[in-house]
């Protein structure tokens, strides 16, 4: 594995109505607003995250994801990764420091699957929200809604999975944690990790490039997932599936939609991995059980509704 890319840093999500979006991401999900900029973007973080933001909302004419970013360990690693990306054949776009508030320079590139990603190394360190750095309490008071702990990962739909795998594994240093293989031996879903998490990013084969399936946020317990389901019903929020368990990753999960149609996941638990673990494999013909372990039946919305 190459070193340099540490973890997911942020995701920029397009929403149709900012006021309604904030009801979803702040009041329901429980993220904390940390700033706004002159273009109208709103910056959010989960309470346990140490950097200023992990979610950026941008009002637009259509929903979806503008880009997902990963934090790099230092400037030397960022420079080397830029060289490696250029050698790989990626076209680099430079975003100057301050283009995102209190974030350093970023380099953007597009995967063969049609998704935009970026790397950066500097972002304002604000510490865990509501907790002291010395002798912190167990959790902060005043959290809203589901009390999301952290932004965890994104799932993207697109084609060219083999080329995208090559980019993330051989250039950026991810490893394959879990996969779905079709009867011909082709990988049709790939779950990639930088850490001991079940995955930090995932891709599923889809005929259209550049589609956004969901952004996922970590909760602590199964009881938190059940409470999230109660809140979803209390607010009459459109639900996709759950509460249930995945076969893939074995996490406890629920999926629901923001007012713009972007899918959100909250989950708890799940498998752990190390880079020396061999990837877990699921057969495509058993995809129902792989996705929804209890029902063992695919929800058509889960496969077809993307932004």
TrEMBL record:
Top EC group: oxidoreductase
InterPro entries in the cross-refs: Catechol_2-3_dOase, Glyas_Bleomycin-R_OHBP_Dase, Glyas_Fos-R_dOase_dom, GlyoxalaseI/FosfomycinResist, VOC_core, Xdiol_ring_cleave_dOase_1/2, XylE-like_N
Presence of keyword Oxidoreductase: yes
Enzyme Commission designation: 1.13.11.2
Signal peptide: none
One Pfam family here: Glyoxalase
Domain called VOC: residue spans: 7-122, 150-269
Domain of life of the source: Bacteria
MF terms in GO: catechol 2,3-dioxygenase activity; ferrous iron binding
Reaction(s) this enzyme catalyzes, per UniProt: catechol + O2 = (2Z,4E)-2-hydroxy-6-oxohexa-2,4-dienoate + H(+)
Cofactor: Fe(2+)
Alphabetized UniProt keyword annotations: Aromatic hydrocarbons catabolism, Dioxygenase, Iron, Metal-binding, Oxidoreductase, Repeat
Entry keyword annotation includes Metal-binding: yes
Family to which the UniProt record says this protein belongs: Belongs to the extradiol ring-cleavage dioxygenase family.
Subunit structure: Homotetramer.
Name of the molecule in the record: Metapyrocatechase
Gene: dmpB
